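User: Some background: our group keeps a shared notebook of sequences we're curious about, and every so often someone picks one and asks for a predicted structure to add to the entry. Today it's my turn. The entry only has the sequence so far, pasted here. Could you supply the structure so I can complete it?
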Amino acid sequence: MTETQKRPYHHGDLRQAIIETAIAMLNEPGGWQFTLREVARRAGVSHAAPYKHFPDKAALLAEIALIGFDRLHVALASARSGAGNATEALVAASRAYLVFGLGNPALYRLMFGAEIGNSAAVHRDKRAMGAFDVVMDLLAEGQAAGLIEKRGVAGQAASVWAQMHGLTMLKLDGMLRPERVGEDAVEAALASFYEGVFV
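Assistant: Of course. Here's the predicted structure to add to the notebook entry:
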């Protein structure tokens, strides 16, 4: 192992080194059960170094969760911008949500778990609201164009989120078993969902 591999930290990048190390550790057995001491060791910094940026482990996990929401926001915004009208955008965004959650299982579970400490504050943060705002905007746009059923946008967005989060978690937990829900449960669920939202 080279010195660079042993010590990923470079002067001036302490905070980023800690975050990147902790994110990598999320995907290992035990997930976020690591300690700040172990994160410091793996990042190649002193045991006290993480505390310069994070008062405790909960604060580090909260920041990682917000980074997850940043990434989800980017994924949904990209899907929306690459689609045509609002219904196509909603289909693209819902698929992007699933791809994100299934492609980042540990991060996704952390984002919506209680392990981040003050999860209510994290979920009220504007960074966490960004992804939800994408959905709100495209639903409002679709309603204005007469492509999406006219209902309260906030409630409709909550329904979209509940559907996508539920499908993602069921898929992650291996609950969508073919013998119970058929071979194409996700596609069938999405089709049924779209029928209730599109005009």
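Suggested note for the entry: Residues 3 and 44 are 10 Å apart (CA to CA). Residues 57-81 form the longest helix (25 residues).
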